[in-house]
Design brief:
Length: 91
Amino acid sequence: MGVAPPHYHPAYGWRLDRIPGQRIAEYEIEHQTLFHLPLMILLNGRMRGEGGVWMSRAELEQLHAELCYMLTDDPGAALDCQWPDTKEAPR
């Protein structure tokens, strides 16, 4: 029916996790608003460094919509999670 889910065990392999206490931050860079999601890089359960994901507002809105869609049993309710000017179903 689909692809098998990836193997997950927090103590083995490479992993990216949120950094506790660090929130997504908004920056103005070269006349463009970007958002940074700080992440820590782990190998076999031990932190190896820090990194992050940079997203435009549109990418952040899409991620927000997809998370809402995954966290609700009612796909229509996911539309309420989006910013008012981008009410469209997740792709």
